[in-house]
Amino acid sequence: MEKRIKEAVRYLGYGRNAADETTLALIGDAFADLERIAAPKSVCRIFDMEQTEDGRIIVGNMEIKSTSLSRNLKGCVKVVLFGATLGAGTDRLIMRASVADMAKAVIIQACAAAFLEEYCDEEQIRIGSELEKQGLYLRPRFSPGYGDFDIGYQEPLMRMLDCAKSIGLTLTDSFMMTPTKSVTALIGASPVKERCPIAGCEACGKTDCEYRR
Amino acid sequence: MLRERLGKELIYFDGGMGTLLQEKGLAPGELPELWNVTHPEEITEIHRQYVEAGSDIVLTNTFGANALKFHDEKCSLREITARAVSCVKTAIRDAANGRTVYTALDVGPTGKLLKPMGDLDFETAYEAFREVMVMGEEAGADLIHIETMSDTYELKAAVLAAKENTSLPVFATAVFDERRKLLTGADVASVVALLEGLRVDALGINCGMGPEQMLPVLEEILRYSSLPVIVKPNAGLPQQREGRTCYDVEPEEFARLMKRITEMGASVVGGCCGTTPEHIRAMKALCRNMDIRPVTEKEYTIVSSYGNSVFLGNSKDMQYGSRIIGERINPTGKKRFKQALKEHDLDYILREGITQQDNGAHILDVNVGLPDIDEPALMKEVVQELQSVVNLPLQIDTVDAEAMENALRVYNGKAMVNSVSGKQESMDRVFPLIRKYGGVVVGLTLDEDGIPADADRRVRIAEKIIREAAKYGIGKKDIVIDALAMTISSEPEGAKVTLETLRRLRDEVKVNTVLGVSNISFGLPSRPVINSAFYTMAMMNGLSAGIINPSSEDMMKAWYAYHALMNLDANCERYIGRYSSVPAGSGGSAAAPASGAADMTLAEAIEKGLKEDAHTITVSLAGSKEPLDIINEELIPALNHVGEGFEKGTVFLPQLLMSAEAAKSAFAVLKEKMDRSGLVQEKKGTIVIATVKGDIHDIGKNIVKVLLENYSFDVIDLGKDVPPEKIVDTVLENGVRLVGLSALMTTTVVSMEETIRQLREQAPGCLVMVGGAVLNQEYADMIGADFYGKDAMQSVHYAQTIFSDDKSQT
């Protein structure tokens, strides 16, 4: 089974159980809708970074305090600021389904999440292969809201990427991203090749999560 | 002065600002507009270079200057704007050498997404634009240049703000991508239609791409636009190099492409990101003395929504066939719809919209007029809600002038408006609104003397409407004449007169036409027989758009057949797509239920989550069994069974919801039957649910809603991003005992806590259950909730406990 289907099934709360035929068929429909309607876009900028003695991370004009992010970026010399979105059409698709059929709505929303992760992975591989030419290797993506990396950092991060203009990604007053199917992250780049850069779930400290892989 | 030159000679804009500022030391993320105050010399210097390079219009450094981005921390918006204008003026004074150079107030997007996709109100956006535009005009700007817009709704807010609050010329450009769409999905025609409708002075494209990539977009803009076209490309596509954004198109190459763009028909040219004074200089050197192509009036009739444009017309080179305007969002003669309006059941109305789109409608008529209803308020709400789930253009159908203006103001796109008539009073009332907001207006062929009985006088009324509209600058392309269908049961010549009127309007007046088709059979039996035949005849006589019920298979058959027969359906593709799977002999009737409904019980259909089957079985069951018995003996036990499975972990969320939707379709059948017989199903209690203020994720709340409704609770759904006050007011107004609140993130749990605090204060008897991704029992206790539901079923159980306690107390 394709990875994105497995991921969608996981997001739908099936845990280790197999999804039923009807749900799988609807998942197929949802991905077909997304292929047609989603307009994935991404933006990235590479910055030099510095980690100070007292645990601050300095990227351009942005200064971050976060133990979890510090751990993630340890040994990195550069950092990629990254933003990606599936666009407003995907949100409309979900809103429409929410009125017409809630079962479809939750399935589209799960599939959109999987679709977005897949897109981010692809983009990260692309960025990574560019940086490998300079002898730099990427770490897993790390987003505001992970661990103690405060969600408030969305604002400077998105401003530095000029996300609204470049990919149409904006922030609400409560630091929620709109369109909702969007990701922002820091991706560290270090001269030392460590483990596979695409991870996320496994690295999280919340081990009792029902959506854990 | 500028208005006179526009479209007659080539006018040059300036080029990029951001890249030059970065060279001068602006850091990424730093707000460039602050430099008007902190580094005025640097800003003036850049402007001066553009004036020297030959720009006729220089933009102020105010792209992001609006109250939403500037919270008056370091300096006021007024100061930033005034300084920005004065920087340009200084540069012009120093370097223009007597040449006329205009100062354009540059207005970029707010950086926020408007509702319903984001959290910014249309009117808040409008206000932010208004503020800076008024300041700009006061400071001496010569025009307003709205640019880099990627959302038609925000574009509309900005243009309205400029037109309503200043007297300056308004230019507007948007960012298109390689798919020739805006980031929020609008196509070229819908952007052109919107901006022309709002009567800007010039429109076009900027940023996003280089000149080469813009060519296909430009070609399309030029095809539709009757206004001068602006083109301001980047110096190529942005490239990331060593952590910097670079643009690779050199001045000479840029100039060569801009010459081509001018030859194609652009009349205002300049550069955006990555372009420099050198680019402008090279462009001007190459394009000097070029004649621009004259701007011509285009005849396309376009209505649009935020993401979709629909063309009307059947003249020589425009063969769009006949458009279907869905008639179902209208209370006339529909008991269930009237009830939905009275109960403020917007979901019902939205589903009518979705169903019509699924059945093939191109445009949706929206009529919510009912005595004792606040039509202006409801119309506004319904239009906004419909536009969040359906991307079809809407036809605003009302006789209430206030409702019409409300709808036109908040409508995202260029609407169709139903209607104006040949009565002077009607034209005096409606045309100013069309002039202001844009729109394609339906003109009824009746006047002070009523509806003429002959085609001749109907045509004359049409001509009068067209003449009167012209006085407002509203062209014939923005008028669609309703030839009026009168029932043949009382007007024997009715159909013939209507058909002749249609034909003459097409051939002689050359105007588009519309018809409420089904009026023709009023008072006759088997109306679809007459309606569908008349529909075909009307299309044959040029009907541009028929207002029909797209769920009527007879009408749709007529439509598909007509388009196939008249070579308006290439290779009969649509016809084949629709009818190839229909078995021979069934005559192309509507599809039968999905699976073998015959041997399935309602309970089985619900447990398996089969919506159509549940509907069909309930219809047949309701013939022999009382609705309440069906509910108690079939529906509820099936729902319970599925719910238990969900809690045991053998049934999962999608299946739970499929069952819920199946049950819902069964309930709808039973509700209609009970309403007819005057029976009322006893509701278990009323629950208010909402996603709290600041939170725009409502999928969890919607899941809870579906399940609570399944279990016969009356749910008042306040939607998402709901302020505490509104929740409290609703609770007090309706004497509600239980509230369900949802929040997704830590940042919005704060609003949840505040809502609970206010509820405790003002509605102490009301209980609160909470749920959402970040919540857990501990968190719920901390903010003082009465119950934490880890999933939707738990909220159902809790509600059941609360309301059964209620009953035992009373």
Molecular structure report:
- The complex is a heterodimer of chains A (213) and B (810).
- Chain A is an alpha+beta fold.
- Chain A has helices at 3-11, 21-37, 67-73, 88-100, 102-132, 154-161, 163-167, and strands spanning 41-51, 56-59, 62-65, 78-85, 137-138, 170-171, 177-178, 182-190.
- Chain A is globular.
- The model of chain A has no long low-confidence stretch (mean pLDDT 91).
- Chain B has 810 residues and is of the alpha/beta class.
- Chain B is built from 30 helices and 25 strands.
- In chain B, helix 17 (455-471) links the parallel strand 17 (440-444) and strand 18 (479-482).
- Chain B starts with a helix and ends with a helix.
- At the A-B interface, helix 2, strand 1, helix 4, helix 5 and helix 6 of A face helix 13, helix 25, helix 26 and helix 28 of B.
Strand and helix map with partners:
The complex is a heterodimer of chains A (213) and B (810).
Chain A: H1 3-11, H2 21-37, E1 41-51, E2 56-59, E3 62-65, H3 67-73, E4 78-85, H4 88-100, H5 102-132, E5 137-138, H6 154-161, H7 163-167, E6 170-171, E7 177-178, E8 182-190
Chain B: H1 2-5, E1 11-12, H2 18-23, H3 35-38, H4 40-53, E2 57-59, H5 77-95, E3 102-107, H6 122-139, E4 143-149, H7 152-165, E5 170-174, H8 188-197, E6 202-206, H9 211-224, E7 229-232, E8 239-241, E9 244-246, H10 251-264, E10 268-269, H11 277-287, E11 301-304, E12 309-312, E13 323-329, H12 335-342, H13 346-358, E14 363-366, H14 375-389, E15 394-397, H15 401-410, E16 416-421, H16 424-437, E17 440-444, H17 455-471, E18 479-482, H18 494-509, E19 512-516, H19 527-540, E20 545-548, H20 553-565, H21 573-579, H22 602-607, H23 611-621, H24 627-648, H25 653-676, E21 686-691, H26 699-710, E22 714-717, H27 724-734, E23 738-742, H28 746-762, E24 767-771, H29 777-782, E25 787-788, H30 792-809
Parallel strand pairs in B: 1-10, 2-3, 3-4, 4-5, 5-6, 6-7, 7-10, 13-14, 13-20, 14-15, 15-16, 16-17, 17-18, 18-19, 19-20, 21-22, 21-23, 23-24, 24-25
Antiparallel strand pairs in B: 8-9, 11-12
Helix pairs in contact in B: 4-5, 4-11, 5-6, 6-7, 8-9, 9-10, 10-11, 13-14, 14-15, 15-16, 17-18, 19-20, 20-21, 23-25, 24-25, 25-26, 26-30, 27-28
